[in-house]
Design a protein that fits this description.
498 residues; mainly alpha; A middle domain of Talin 1; two-stranded antiparallel sheet; 2 strands
């Protein structure tokens, strides 16, 4: 477990950023820390430079048995690249790229863990969490770039990727909260009757997720409350100047929702920055609490210490290789999304289930291995922290990137999907409230996730039905035919000529 093994010269209560509270303590500890400065800690390899044989050996062994088995999928990486130059075979290309992302993301996560071992505790876990979410950020950005802003009325097979992007944001959170957390509870509970974890995990985790859910809910709630009060945008049709409906058309509501989404995204990103600042500057943050409780309880601690490790040069090479591979494969993956939707895979199932599963696979394997080894606090943190980052940073970042690229992407999610998110957070919070878990609770969370996956498979695409779109009740509220429009225009022209 990488996060439980930190440099020996990093005191367990030392924050990453200096504060008035710990300044004096850090000064007193300087002498003791200096004495350990030249000692190798658990993250050091004892080597320097780059050694191909050792590099491949460490890469193969990875962080745990499950991650090592994932490495057998590496042949899919060249296969996916070669298939890209073969005409046709669109579904095969998507499947190959989908599978190839898993070992590439696994290497990125492992390289992040190796880098975290070589840094002070708080800095290491911040870097490890960020690198764990880089696959998701790359995926979101590629989806935004691929989205056709002129095809906003259709589904994925028509170039409109907004439903898939929005579903992928919520799907990433749900996959972590229900599937990953459920599997951690389940496999951890198989070895132990129950697993106790620190209260700060549930308090900070569920609290921040509720704040994020509130922010994500606002644009959708605003739209739902006012969509029945709008009038359609009819070219050439002018109502009385100054009337209420003259100002509040469907287009005006869309613009307002977009502006609210922009402002909300900025606010959520600020909230994430404050969260990171607090964790980095507080002596007794969630990082310290999680790591200190579990770092000596890892069942594989001695084995992990004895494993060969990357040098800093090898870690850098692994990061470059994995980032390049992940970016290339995600571009190839997104290029084939339209063909997958045409083949009958619904937008919501693709975004809410398939994409989060592949971009979170490596991170989930690490969390499940930690729960199996008894370090449940770190396992829970690896489930909750990515969900917090997706809700407070990655999701809002999609809106900001779309804004900069001139592509109107908002946070007006389907009401059903927002309801699933809020209910999932409440269910998980209830399971975390008592401070312990068992295999039954894990199995129930996984069953909830399976039920959601089944529902998503049957949920219609936006061009068929939507619970919170412009094709819904707002349009039905004003059933105006073309004959009526022509008559109204004729009457207005007659009045204007008098």
């Amino acid at each position: 477990m990488a996060s439980a093994q930190r440099p020996g010269n990093s005191h367990e209560s030392t924050a990453l950023l200096p504060t008035a509270l710990n300044h004096g303590q850090s000064t007193n500890q300087h002498g003791a820390d200096h004495a350990q400065a030249h000692a190798n800690h658990e993250g050091e390899s004892g080597r320097t430079g780059f050694h191909p044989r050792w590099f491949l050996t460490v890469l193969w062994r990875s962080s745990c048995t499950a991650s090592m088995l994932v490495n057998v999928l590496w042949p899919f990486v060249p296969v996916a690249i070669i298939l890209h130059f073969v005409p046709g075979l669109h579904l095969w290309k998507f499947a190959a790229a989908y599978i190839a992302v898993i070992p590439s993301a696994n290497l990125l996560g492992f390289a992040g863990q190796e880098l975290a071992r070589k840094l002070p505790k708080v800095a290491g876990i911040l870097i490890e969490t960020t690198l764990g979410s880089i696959v998701e950020i790359i995926l979101f950005v590629v989806l935004v770039v691929k989205h056709d802003a002129n095809a906003s009325a259709g589904s994925g097979d028509e170039g409109n990727l907004i439903p898939i992007i929005q579903a992928a944001i919520l799907g990433s959170i749900l996959t972590n909260l229900l599937l990953c957390l459920g599997l951690c509870f389940f496999f951890g509970g198989l070895r132990r009757t129950s697993q106790k974890f620190h209260a700060i995990v549930s308090e900070v985790g569920t609290g921040l997720l509720l704040v994020a859910a509130f922010g994500l809910l606002i644009p959708s709630a605003f739209y739902s409350a006012l969509k029945s009060e709008t009038v359609p945008d009819i070219p050439g049709l002018g109502l009385q100047h100054g009337s209420r409906h003259d100002r509040f058309t469907v287009g005006k509501l869309q613009d307002d929702v977009l502006r609210i989404s922009h402002a909300t995204s900025i606010a959520l990103i600020i909230a994430f920055a404050l969260y990171v600042w607090y964790q980095a500057s507080s002596q007794h943050s969630i990082f310290d609490e999680v790591i200190e409780m579990d770092e000596h309880r890892d069942a594989d601690r001695n084995t992990d210490i004895e494993k060969p490790k990357f040098t800093m040069t090898e870690t850098t090479v692994a990061l470059v290789i994995s980032l390049t591979s992940v970016t290339l494969l995600l571009v190839l993956l997104v290029e084939k999304i339209e063909h997958v939707v045409e083949a009958g895979v619904p937008d919501q199932f693709l975004g809410l289930i398939l994409l989060p599963l592949v971009e979170k696979a490596a991170e989930h394997l690490t969390a499940i291995d930690e729960a199996w080894d008894g370090v449940i606090n770190v396992a829970l943190y690896h489930c909750l922290a990515p969900s917090i980052q997706t809700a407070l940073l990655n999701g809002p970042l999609v809106v900001i990137v779309g804004w900069l690229l001139g592509k109107p992407i908002d946070l007006n999610f389907e009401i059903l999907m927002i309801g699933l998110l809020v209910l999932s957070i409440l269910v998980v919070g209830n399971f975390l409230r008592d401070g312990e878990s068992n295999w039954l609770e894990g199995a129930l969370l996984v069953i909830i996730y399976v039920i959601i996956a089944i529902m998503c498979w049957y949920y219609p695409n936006p061009d068929v039905a939507t619970s919170n779109g412009l094709e819904g009740p707002a349009a039905a509220h004003f059933p105006i035919s073309m004959d009526m429009i022509q008559q109204l225009q004729k009457m207005m022209n007659e009045n204007a000529g008098r």
